[in-house]
Every structure is written in C-alpha cells, then in structure tokens.
Amino acid sequence: MAEYLNLIQIISGIFAVVLIFAGILMSVKKLNPEKYEVIPVKTTVISTLLIILGLLSYAVMKTCTNMTVVTEEHYDLWALYLASLGEVIKLFGFIVFVPVLFRLFKPRSRKEKPAEEEFSDEESES
Questions:
Q1: CA-CA distance, 98 to 51, in Å (whole number)?
Q2: What pLDDT shows up at residue 80?
Q3: What are the angstrom distances between the C-alpha of 47 and each of 1, 51, 55, 71, 91?
Q4: To pair with 85 at 20 to 30 A between CA atoms, which of 45, 50, 55, 64?
C-alpha cells in the first residue's frame, strides 16, 4: 500500500505544479503593457480554475503524506483530505487571487501623441 501512496503522491504533486504554473502563466501571457488592454474575464476565470484544481491536487499529495503519518489513528479518508485541504488553503490559498489581481490592475492610458507634436512644432518655430 505504501508504494501506491508514494506513486499517487508523486503524480498528484507533479500535476499540482503543472496546473498552478499553467494558471499563472495564462494570466501573465495576457499582460501586455504596450497594448494597454485589460485581461479578458474568460482568461481570468480559466486561470483561476486551473490554480484551484492545482491546489486540490496538492491537497491529495498532502493527504498521502498525512496518511502515512497517521495510520495508527484510523481516521476516515475524507477527514484526512479535508484536514489536508484546510492546511493547503491556509498556506497557499492566496495564489488563487493572483489572476484576479492581474485583472484588477488596469493599465495606464496612453500618452497622447499630439502633445509631443506640439512641442516639436514650438521648437521648430524658434
């Protein structure tokens, strides 16, 4: 049984890392300061869901870790998972808000080019 727990732990850990980084990178790729555009809502929702799935997968990994430690107590599997999920949310729950923060930071508006042209016209007249 311990071999399977280690295998599940490794697979869920790798899956968690891939999902979390995919969610963050999806939001970061939409950030483009040259275009002055806000990240689309659809991208924000998808990246947030990927991060949530990654954290749930990380909770599976923590459950496998806690299961090997707490085998003598005979806790129910769901109790172990919920305790692990609470621990994961307490430590890494803030990551869910990263795509929302990227969306909330609105890009600054462009500087108007006619103002630059006015300065060049004034210099040429003098």
A1: 9
A2: 87
A3: 35, 6, 12, 36, 19
A4: 45
Structure token pair of residue 55:
């954290």
**What pTM did the predictor assign?**
0.76
Here the tokens at position 107 are: 């890009």
Q: How far apart are CA 45 and CA 93, in angstroms?
A: 16
